[in-house]
């Protein structure tokens, strides 16, 4: 069976994602599409609009055969670490290809750039350039792009400050460093750009624009044309079942309380809290009245909105630097969220070759390595009322993966 991996967040699942799945299957002639999907908190430091279980269900109904959770340790990270974890899982699952969306649509140029960095001297110069630019106050994406230009190893038509190009480059680099045999494939983003705030096409919109539409009105019918019917219904069902979608504003009281009642010294032990920024966080937590006001007060040229959001997630989950260091070398397990019959057959065929445990249900046996995922789910559920919170936590700890028959 030909297997192709994709790395996704589905926040929420929309028509652009459906196009990606269909093209990934067509371009690679795949029998099985395996999605490694972020859990309840995402790469840019945001809570997912609905739970990982709801998003896994959307994926199955749109044609994905297997949905695997990207552990929190790798999910709420800058691009390099995010890619390392995702590629390691796809490789462990025996994928022959991995397929990603990009602004460029040019996989060969991205491979060429990654190949250049295999030269030790070039890579050392590149890493030095990035560190220098970061020390000068540039963000990581800008430092990355500037580093490429400084060394003269960037293609003129590839903009590596764009989010999907950055991720695609890091997927390829991770696959090379891990010495996998997976073949990279890319698909051009269709119609909508990653950061588009409004609908720019009749049927395709960015997840950003879709979330904006959902949170700006109690009536979500405006998004009906840009998401599959199954995803639209899943969103309605989630709101009816749990009473709320998830937004940073809902978590602000918890974050504010944590910042105001935790000493600066204790905050400094948490992951990504560095260089004394804990004092800035505490100062503005006292002044701000909502999350967006807090973020606008705290962010600087050096500390971007995304970097601070990730930091805030780690503060909410009380994730210490020492915990991340212990678990971020490589994924220690494969958490199965959902599968159909084709995915089930594929898993059966490779199960004996798996190098790390496959977990289909939360187990005390794996409690230590799943601690961060457990805490993140508990935090994610806190904005819900008692009944809905209990329902979501029961789904996490007591029920098996979703199986589509």
Automatic annotation (TrEMBL):
GO terms for molecular function: ATP binding; ligase activity, forming carbon-nitrogen bonds; transferase activity; tRNA binding. Keywords: ATP-binding, Cytoplasm, Ligase, Nucleotide-binding, RNA-binding, Transferase, tRNA processing, tRNA-binding. ATP binds at residues 7-20, 101, 164, 189. It catalyses: cytidine(34) in elongator tRNA(Met) + acetate + ATP = N(4)-acetylcytidine(34) in elongator tRNA(Met) + AMP + diphosphate. Pfam families: HIGH_NTase1. Its EC number is 6.3.4.-. It comes from the Bacteria. It is found in: Cytoplasm. It is an enzyme of class 6 (ligase). GO terms for biological process: tRNA modification. GO terms for cellular component: cytoplasm. HAMAP family: TmcAL. Belongs to the TmcAL family. Catalyzes the formation of N(4)-acetylcytidine (ac(4)C) at the wobble position of elongator tRNA(Met), using acetate and ATP as substrates. First activates an acetate ion to form acetyladenylate (Ac-AMP) and then transfers the acetyl group to tRNA to form ac(4)C34. This is tRNA(Met) cytidine acetate ligase. It comes from Heyndrickxia ginsengihumi. The gene is tmcAL.
